[in-house]
Amino acid sequence: MSSDALENANRYFEQAAKVLDLGRDVAVQLRTPFREVRVELNVRMDDGSIGTFVGYRVQHDNARGPFKGGLRYHHEVDAQEVTALAQLMTWKTAVAGVPFGGGKGGIHVDASKLSVGEKERITRAFVDKINDIVGDHTDIPAPDMYTGPQEMGWFLDQYTKYHGYKPGVVTGKPIELGGSHGRAAATGRGCLYVTEELMARLGEPLVGKTVVVQGFGNVGGWAARLFAEQGALVVAISDISGGYYDPKGIDVAAALAWVAKHRTLAGFHAAKKVDNDELLTLPCDILVPAALGGVITEEVARGIRARVIVEGANGPTTPGADEILFAKGVHVIPDILANAGGVTVSYFEWVQNLQHYYWDEARVNEELRRVMRAAFDATWEQSRSRSLPMRMGAYVVGIGRVYTATRMRGL
Ligand SMILES: NC(=O)C1=CN([C@@H]2O[C@H](COP(=O)(O)OP(=O)(O)OC[C@H]3O[C@@H](n4cnc5c(N)ncnc54)[C@H](OP(=O)(O)O)[C@@H]3O)[C@@H](O)[C@H]2O)C=CC1
Ligand SMILES: O=C(O)CCC(=O)C(=O)O
């Protein structure tokens, strides 16, 4: 995603601003981030040297509630990427109808090269630098690529040293520290729920549909598992080590067990090994990109054979590719709708933290389905009534809600 991420996000925004007939001044106001923070992190590495890293937190918009969005540890993280991802969060929380704005953070680092201790020290150093601008009613981080419950646990612990115990300052925590049941699966589960909604509109069953998933981490791993549990046939999966393809179906449970033991899919047996670009153009009914942004380029889009794309990742499709896919009749469930299950259950976690009253997983999943269905309905209705791709339908819903909140606040 990195270099073109902001350009792509702004292009989608401008397209939607035109549909909504927003004035230039309003469009600039809505698009401009509230605050962009860049911090230097100096950390003692295991070999005794000093590691210097750069961290970012961009707070895009808070008209509808506190800034909300994940933290990514990746070597492509830069100011533009984090700003683009923060903007996507603003529209996403609005499409989901959860009372948050949008923000995102990240650290420019290759997480695969860090020991657990180094990761912990980097996380704590980051909290040292940004604790004054986050808080349970101001800005609430969460996991994104290469962060998870453990990083959120360290984040909470370090934050507590400055501001006392406020578990709602961060979501995606371990259950033992006030995390929510169902948060780990939530983004993948949300992908499943919106796909079920689309299939119902198309009058087709999900059972027996072939599915290709790119990325086998939190989102991709759970998506593959949940689609398989519903009777779809997962024919290919992938991670940084490449793609694993079997037209007769991948044993997803075995793949998850493999990754739990070996960390990546490298060495996992499948009928055919493909690379991550080939994977995207494999014959299938449903493609779920669930890794990095910018992977579906115009060239890839021309070769795509899936009929449905469910954007588990943020920003996987470039605007040029999006046009090609629309012209080909591919149904793209856009990121700000498809992967909104994560922030939705983060909202449930925050509510539980503020109330000190905890829900069971059945309640979480039931409420998640309700939110995803409503978000899908609103998107579908906009896209049908205005003859727009679903992405623009979702943008119209999200930006429209943020615009209304902004106006009602009085400027
Ligand atoms: N976590 C969440 O709740 C949410 C995440 N998202 C988005 O979903 C996407 C994935 O996030 P998440 O699952 O949390 O991240 P994880 O870190 O849990 O997993 C990332 C996965 O992507 C793989 N990957 C990394 N680079 C590549 C590549 N170049 N080609 C193929 N696979 C690759 C990783 O492989 P390996 O492990 O081998 O390095 C890993 O399997 C991101 O775009 C994120 O922004 C969106 C909404 C919520
Ligand atoms: O759970 C959250 O608050 C945000 C997750 C996230 O970063 C995302 O939806 O992209």
Structure, explained:
With 411 residues, the chain is of the alpha/beta class. Helix content is 49%, strand content 17%. It has 15 helices and twelve strands. It has a seven-stranded mixed sheet, sandwiched between helices. Strands 1-2-4-3-5 form a five-stranded mixed sheet. Strand 1 (35-44) and strand 2 form a beta hairpin. The longest helix is centred in the last third of the chain and has 25 residues, at 361-385. The protein is globular, with a radius of gyration of 20 Å. The two termini are 33 Å apart. The mean pLDDT is 97. The protein binds NADPH dihydro-nicotinamide-adenine-dinucleotide phosphate and 2-oxoglutaric acid. GO terms for molecular function: glutamate dehydrogenase (NAD+) activity; nucleotide binding.
Q: Would you count the extended β strands for me?
A: 12
As a percent range, the share of strand residues is 15-25%
Output the structural class: alpha/beta
Kindly identify the CATH topology of the largest domain.
Answer: Rossmann fold
CATH class of the largest domain: Alpha Beta
User: What count of structural domains?
Assistant: 2
- Shape by Cα distribution: globular
- Which stretches of 5+ consecutive residues score pLDDT under 50? none
- Describe the largest sheet: 7 strands, mixed
Q: Quote the average pLDDT.
A: 97
Rounded Rg: 20 Å
CATH architecture of the largest domain: 3-Layer(aba) Sandwich
The CATH homologous superfamily of the largest domain is termed Leucine Dehydrogenase, chain A, domain 1
Order of helices and strands: HHEEEHEHEHHEHEEHEHEHEHEHHHH
**Number of helices, counting only DSSP H or I runs of 4 residues or more:** 15
User: What percent of residues adopt helix (DSSP H or I)?
Assistant: 40-55%
Bound molecules: NADPH dihydro-nicotinamide-adenine-dinucleotide phosphate, 2-oxoglutaric acid
Within the largest sheet, what's the order of strands?
9-8-7-6-10-11-12
How far the N terminus sits from the C terminus, by CA atoms, comes to: 33 Å
